[in-house]
């Protein structure tokens, strides 16, 4: 049986005395007053300790070490509310302890480092980092070098950094080059850059497994490498929907501590050829037109979407189409159940039990054999048709395209917006920016699905598809991100209590 590490000592922080305790999953320190009474305790899960250094160490504004032999510094994750966003900001906390002897100091640093390894086994040692210097406001390089690289260095992570010189360079690198020794791949950029990494890693994994991505019936192999996203793009939807905030430091800390968030991926085929993979918005009609229009105005940066959205809305278009879908099991969850997929979500973990560790077998089973229900077909004129494997929340729409969608349940939400008068459609769009229910409109339908074939023109995570007739299939938990889902600050939960998870692990939408 594994012996639990426990260490308890009286240590000093400045001129205050503390009782520091390392036990099991937690490291905590309590100020003790002159009469030996306990004051405030700070408790940090060992998995959230970023690093332990001998001496008195600072990393900001630059690294400095005062090499004293009785001191040690602990860096850890500190949370703060993010104001407008739903998730929590993570910041680097720091505490400098003084020990009565060097022997005790060495005991503390050794025990803490051992505990770190034991309690967070997915911490990366070596990362491959791709920076898109032209994403978003073109600040990718600066964001990485000033905010992220010092944290990686502090955590002892070595990174191989590639600043891309062309589109698809990151994807091609992942498909062809030696990836031995890397624990994960990090992209610094937006959803387009993430999509390159996604395609490279899924493609490489299938190549190595001898599987054909062109076969829509094949059970794809899950990717062994984790993906980290440092947001530096225009929409940054995948980051927002998996972390809850667009903040490079928060994302870097999730990478460092080796958080792991599985993600559903939708494969998009035409006839017997793979077109793309999608995790967020696969959208026809309005969203396809906005993307096509926005590509002409890339020079505007992120504002191109606001401009193009307005222009496309004013053009007042609708499209004839046929959409068929295979509904998911309604007993498991529904897109109208008013829950949210948050960190530790039980709907996703129930699926996890079935998918891991033999995910390929069960993915195949869920999609082909064990799945109840029949194909449903709808035909008519649509303003837009969207399929999303996750909520697709982003700063423009904090609850997202489908607020109750799940990151890793093996399903996607299909949103059908029938042709309607312009003000009705504006109401639908506007509701995305607030907490009002965009599905509670007579011309909107939402279905939780496993597969969809359709005829249209598509925006696939920010890329235009050349074909209109497509077959989509959701592959549960095909990739894993360095993230943990959204941690909510002060939310109202199913049980009615604040800041207390309900038994389902989900919370009511505010
Ligand atoms: C009257 C107010 C209207 C507001 C409408 C708000 C609806 C917003 C939903 C946005 C969902 C975004 C899903 C993510 C899409 C991205 O993959 C894609 C590419 O992003 P990037 O690589 O960072 O450029 N972004 C888009 O397709 C932009 C859609 C904007 C629609 C207005
Ligand atoms: N060096 C480069 N030059 C031009 N395009 C690039 C480069 N690196 C990546 N790209 C492409 O730029 C597109 C947009 O990148 P992204 O980082 O998502 O920014 P944004 O969110 O502003 O669209 C992606 O599709 C990606 O393939
Ligand atoms: Ca899903």
UniProtKB/TrEMBL annotation:
Listed GO CC annotations: membrane
SMART domains per the UniProt record, alphabetical: DAGKc
GO annotation (BP), single: ceramide metabolic process
Entries under PROSITE patterns matching the protein: DAGK
Alphabetical list of SUPFAM superfamilies matching this protein: NAD kinase/diacylglycerol kinase-like
Residues in DAGKc domain copies: 122-272
Superkingdom assignment: Eukaryota
Single GO MF descriptor: ceramide kinase activity
PANTHER family, alphabetized: CERAMIDE KINASE, SPHINGOSINE KINASE
Protein name: Zgc:158263
């Amino acid at each position: 049986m594994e012996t639990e590490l426990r260490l308890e000592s009286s240590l000093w922080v400045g001129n205050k005395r503390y009782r520091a305790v390392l036990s099991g999953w937690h490291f905590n320190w309590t100020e003790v007053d002159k009469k030996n009474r306990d004051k405030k305790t700070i408790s940090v899960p060992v998995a959230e300790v970023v690093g332990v250094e001998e001496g008195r160490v600072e990393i900001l504004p630059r690294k400095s070490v005062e090499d004293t032999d009785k001191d040690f510094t602990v860096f850890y994750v500190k949370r703060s509310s993010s104001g407008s966003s739903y998730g929590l900001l993570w910041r680097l906390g720091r505490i400098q302890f003084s020990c009565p002897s060097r022997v005790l100091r060495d005991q503390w640093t050794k025990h803490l480092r051992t505990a770190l390894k034991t309690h967070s086994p997915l911490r990366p040692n070596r990362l491959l980092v791709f920076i898109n210097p032209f994403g978003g406001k073109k600040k990718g390089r600066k964001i990485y070098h000033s905010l992220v690289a010092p944290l990686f260095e502090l955590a002892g992570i070595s990174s191989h950094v590639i600043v891309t010189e062309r589109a698809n360079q990151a994807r091609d690198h992942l498909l062809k080059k030696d990836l031995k020794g890397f624990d994960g791949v990090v992209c610094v950029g937006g959803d387009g850059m993430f999509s390159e990494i996604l395609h490279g890693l899924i493609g490489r994994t299938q190549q190595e497994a001898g599987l054909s991505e062109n076969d829509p019936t094949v059970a794809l192999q899950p990717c062994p490498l984790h993906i980290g996203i440092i947001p530096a793009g225009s929409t940054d939807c995948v980051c927002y929907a998996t972390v809850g905030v667009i903040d490079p430091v928060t994302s870097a800390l999730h990478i460092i501590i080796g958080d792991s968030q599985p993600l559903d991926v939708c494969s998009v085929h035409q006839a017997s050829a793979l077109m793309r993979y999608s995790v967020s918005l696969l959208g026809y009609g309005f969203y396809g037109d906005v993307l096509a229009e926005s590509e002409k105005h890339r020079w505007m940066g992120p504002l191109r979407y606001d401009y193009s959205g307005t222009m496309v809305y004013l053009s007042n278009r609708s499209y004839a189409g046929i959409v068929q879908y295979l509904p998911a099991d309604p007993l498991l969850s529904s897109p109208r159940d008013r829950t949210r997929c948050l960190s530790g979500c039980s709907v996703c973990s129930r699926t996890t039990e079935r998918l891991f560790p033999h995910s390929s077998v069960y993915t195949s089973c869920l999609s082909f054999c064990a799945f109840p229900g029949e194909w449903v077909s709808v035909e008519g004129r649509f303003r837009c048709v969207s399929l999303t494997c996750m909520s697709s929340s982003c700063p423009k729409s904090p609850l997202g395209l489908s607020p109750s969608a799940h990151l890793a349940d093996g399903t996607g939400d299909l949103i059908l917006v029938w042709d309607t008068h312009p003000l009705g459609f504006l109401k639908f769009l506007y509701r995305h920016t607030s907490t009002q229910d965009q599905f509670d409109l007579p011309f909107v339908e939402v279905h939780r699905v496993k597969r969809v074939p359709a005829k249209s023109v598509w925006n696939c995570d920010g890329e235009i598809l050349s074909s209109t007739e497509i077959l989509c299939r959701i592959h549960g938990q095909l990739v894993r991100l360095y993230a943990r889902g959204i941690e909510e600050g002060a939310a109202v939960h199913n049980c009615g209590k604040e800041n207390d998870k309900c038994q389902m692990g989900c919370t009511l939408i505010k």
